[in-house]
Amino acid sequence: MKILNITILLLISLLMLSVTSCGATNNRESTGEYIDDTVITTKVKTAIMQDKMLSAAEINVETFKGVVQLSGFVSSRAEITQATSVARAVKGVSSVKNDIRIK
């Protein structure tokens, strides 16, 4: 099941990659930055899925220029802290914005 989830995430990442443009601005990434951020997002999602304490289905991950934003809902403050720790541990993450809320 985990291999299927990882495969699906990679396919979605590749699909998203195919619709990018080349120029970078303050509000828009270059193709290279987009690829890097897609890889970071996939790695963070995979790390969250592998963490037994976290419910990956309820945590959303987005990355822009190395900054990871977490959102969604969890059951406790400990899960919020754990999700932040897991995301920070991923290579390439420059910082984490955590907008996860407790149900």
From TrEMBL:
Domain BON, chain residue ranges per copy: 36-103
Signal sequence annotation: 1-24
Keywords: Signal
Keyword rRNA-binding in annotation: no
Listed Pfam families: BON
InterPro entries attached to this UniProt entry: BON_dom, Lipoprotein_DolP, Transpt-assoc_nodulatn_dom_bac
Keyword Signal: yes
Protein name: Transporter
Organism: Alishewanella tabrizica
Organism phylogeny: Bacteria, Pseudomonadati, Pseudomonadota, Gammaproteobacteria, Alteromonadales
